[in-house]
Amino acid sequence: MNNIQLLSEPVASEKTTKPIELYIFIDPLCPNAFKLQSMLKKLQLEYEHYFTWRYVLSTQLTTLNCVTRRIKGCLTGADVDITHPALPSLAIKAAELQGKKAAYRYIRKLQEHALLETKNVHSYTALIEIAKEAKLDQEEFIKDFGSKEAVRAFQCDLYITREMEIDEVPSIVFFNECIEDEGLKVSGMYSYEIYVQILQEMLDEEIVSKPLPTFEELFQRFQCLTTYEVASIYSISMNDAERELKKRMLQQKIERISNNAVTFWRLKQSSYSF
């Protein structure tokens, strides 16, 4: 694995009771980011008792000042709407100001619309609508979108990306609880088994997986999944995954949303208690 290397200086972060911390470097609208997040779901389900994680946005952008001025103009009515490649990243950092879970919900909704092509995810207006769908505080989100805090948070992510010499996304850097130890940078995508192996080697002990949840429990936790994600989580074929998902759809537990490129299965609002 030529794209795995040691890093000598981990980034300072909050103390955690879990022994491993993952820094996950993504461009949220890159197809490989979605594949990595699918792998991460299974890793969470089986081994999250060993690690915490945070996303670091690694989108390459150079025009933040201009964009934030235009956002403020949009808020005051100077523009009807604006579009720019920087806006999704700024929107994610605005969502993050409402907490990690809020940011995760926002990223997921953003990616759903990008993959289904149901919204222009580079549009200010669309990104505000996505915040509502992700059940964020709308007023707070609009205030934070393009704020100095959101810009600084995004710039901090870009700084971490440069400091850790991340030249390929997605990438993951693994740190253990000993600040003196080197981090392990894994650039690019590998099989699920490789990430499990890295966890085990960093802990230097046999790790024990939790049993995977039932289909119903899975959707209670994640609420919206692709056929590919379900197949990956349960290590079954796409056909078998689709067969099981169609059963739940006929039972009115989930609904199907698709285009020519991707199929999502979403928990129905009336099915929050199976």
Automatic annotation (TrEMBL):
HAMAP family: Adapter_SpxH. GO terms for cellular component: cytoplasm. It comes from Ureibacillus thermophilus. Interacts with Spx. The keyword Glycoprotein does not apply. It is found in: Cytoplasm. This is ClpXP adapter protein SpxH. Its main location: cytoplasm. Adapter protein required for efficient degradation of Spx by ClpXP under non-stress conditions. Interaction with Spx stabilizes Spx and exposes the C-terminus of Spx for recognition and proteolysis by ClpXP. Belongs to the SpxH family. Keywords: Cytoplasm. The lineage of its organism: Bacteria, Bacillati, Bacillota, Bacilli, Bacillales.
